[in-house]
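Justification of resources, computational component.

The compute hours requested in this renewal are based largely on the per-chain cost of generating structure records like the one below. Each record pairs the submitted sequence with a full structure-token output. That output is archived, and it is also reused by downstream analysis tasks.
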Amino acid sequence: MVEQHTPRSLIVTFYGAYGRSFEGPVPVSALVRLLGAAGVDAPSVRSSVSRLKRRGFLLPGRAADGSAGYELSAEARQLLDDGDRRIYGERGAGPAEEWLLAV
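The structure output for this chain reads:
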């Protein structure tokens, strides 16, 4: 069975993977097109963006072409950066810790 992702989780994943390096706000129309390719309808995308904005995850702004867009808030960037450190950070086991060897 294929796991279904919510529009909100797809938007957060997009911003986590690509949105941090994007210069300025990401146009809403681009999010609608991108998530549309994943089978999410436009009203669901807009509703999820609105909820993320209300929660302080996204900040409204104007994209380079003048259209409405959203960028990550400082708190959202910190949250994503913390997650990256947990997932990708190098943490070696100390000499007093147990080791597990899988063969």
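Residues 60 and 70 are 5 Å apart (CA to CA). The radius of gyration is 18 Å.
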